[in-house]
Amino acid sequence: MALAIDIISDVVCPWCFIGKRRLESALGLYRERNPQAPEPQIAFHPFELNPDIPREGILRSEYIAKKFGARGYSAHDRLVHAGAQLGIPFAFEKIQRQPNTLAAHALIERARRSGVQGEVKEALMKAYFVDGLDLTDAKTLVRVSAEAGLEGEEAEAAIADEDLRRLVAEEEEKARAMGVQGVPFFIFNGRIVVEGAQPPEVLLEAMLEAEKEPAPSA
């Protein structure tokens, strides 16, 4: 049976981007240990770091001043260094707007149903952190998702679908009810939890431990 990996994260969480890269490294180690094992099944789940931000977003400078105060953009130095080691060229200075990410999560959920969830998740994170694109802009969201493999009409429908947004918000509430307070949050085979962007070796250990028992049926 394939290893199940559930990842709770946000597209505007830099440590989630770092955690995604570290998981990819861990998967490489896992394949070396288990070359005959089925490909792990990865699913991304929503979590909004800033659910109270309005749909139109706010100025990034305003967000930074409120979150980091006098430290300002210097608070990103550690992230820039960590990202460079993993091939993520964080360009925080390009970001002009801090978005509400509910629409992005709706796109990621629609992408799951279309079999391109990982590609869309990656594309949205890169669009925000590397290209500095405005994720409050519907045309930008559609274009980025379409380039990652989600049909443009599907992307437009997902952004406009209020029922889908409610479903995403409900899933996020379930995560908070489980005790998730920060992301990334990894769950392996429904039973082993790793919080934070841990090193690949830690994630590999969790994978191997999770395989010792079958995943829960529900």
**Biggest sheet character:** 4 strands, mixed
Structural class call reads alpha+beta
Total strands: 6
- Overall helicity: 40-55%
Radius of gyration: 17 Å
pLDDT average, as an integer? 95
What is the structure about, briefly put?
By secondary structure, this protein is α+β, with helices and mostly antiparallel strands.
What would you say this structure looks like, in words?
The protein has 218 residues and is an alpha+beta fold. The protein is built from nine helices and six strands, in the order βαββααβαααααββα. The protein has helices spanning 14-33, 60-68, 77-85, 102-113, 117-129, 138-147, 152-160, 162-177, 200-210; strands at residues 4-9, 41-46, 58-59, 97-98, 185-188, 192-195. Strands 2-1-5-6 form a four-stranded mixed β-sheet, sandwiched between helices. Helix 1 (14-33) links the parallel strand 1 (4-9) and strand 2 (41-46). Helix 1 (14-33) crosses helix 9. The longest helix has 20 residues, at 14-33. It is globular. The two termini are 15 Å apart. The model has no long low-confidence stretch (mean pLDDT 95).
List the helices and strands and how they pair.
Elements: E1 4-9, H1 14-33, E2 41-46, E3 58-59, H2 60-68, H3 77-85, E4 97-98, H4 102-113, H5 117-129, H6 138-147, H7 152-160, H8 162-177, E5 185-188, E6 192-195, H9 200-210
Parallel strand pairs: 1-2
Antiparallel strand pairs: 1-5, 3-4, 5-6
Keywords:
218 residues, alpha+beta, 4-stranded mixed sheet, two-stranded antiparallel sheet, 9 helices, 50% helix, globular
